[in-house]
User: Fold this.
Amino acid sequence: MRRFVVAALLALPLASALACGACDEDKVAATYDHATVQRATAQHRVVVFCDVQGQAIDADRVRRVAAATSGIDAASVRTSTAPATLSFTVDPRKRSPQSAASALQRGAPAGTKIAIVRVLGA
Assistant:
């Protein structure tokens, strides 16, 4: 019994450190790609991380809409279903992150809400 209690106590900090997907850091981490961030920095672009909410999130459709949105680098689009997030790069001299997110919102499936969580870069 003593071994079980010790093992349970040792596992407690590990369990509390696991990502739950509720905080902004988890949402950023879900689609973070270091090579994309480095490339965006070198090209004076920004990386935009968005929370995606809705009843039935179609990640493929959200990815297609993002890739087809003017000003978004199609090769940079990343999606995650758990937590439901989206990231992409955009040149802020051509389109603001807010404008890109608004365009995504207009093209997203009905009932889907896209909101910026964080912007990395210039």
